[in-house]
């Protein structure tokens, strides 16, 4: 599918020109463009990032992408369907990144994820994400980006600890998870030390403004539909 389909979009917002030192970011949806661009959550998070001058965000789908930064610092995924599990891993491999977070090092971006699947039950995906955002992006994104900016340029471990302080941000590597047995439920999730929050509370948007479409296109699964 041609990337020229991006030019067929009707944007309902004006993206901000990124600063020269903006954070190079990839925001991915692990499915085809027509499905991903129909997701209201994906639209809203992408637009929120694109409205920031301190973030240079590019979109990635399984069948097409915008020009991607050669050395992204952040790689985000919006996960709406459990059946996209395999596509998530395939995109990581396509970007030449280790699929498991414990194999990534200072040369790799921070891989974060959000969306209804991860908010409902993050643990099945915990081995693949450095950071999981629990709840609504309207509440989380701003604090997440600001925390990353404070830790930018520092060690990966420092960055993850800094991000773990943000309400709603779960950093799986900073917790020990035990199970009743390999095939049974979780017995406990405990932080590795006292500096890490005991609990990560899901963030819920309670504003008076409804989220709505930020882009309309005839190539969406629901062509030219305005979502609220």
UniProtKB/TrEMBL annotation:
Residue ranges constituting the Radical SAM domain according to the UniProt record: 73-172
InterPro entries: Radical_SAM_N2
One Pfam match: Radical_SAM_N2
The protein's name in its UniProt record: Radical SAM protein
Taxonomic source organism: Zarconia navalis LEGE 11467
Highest classification ranks of the organism: Bacteria, Bacillati, Cyanobacteriota, Cyanophyceae, Oscillatoriophycideae
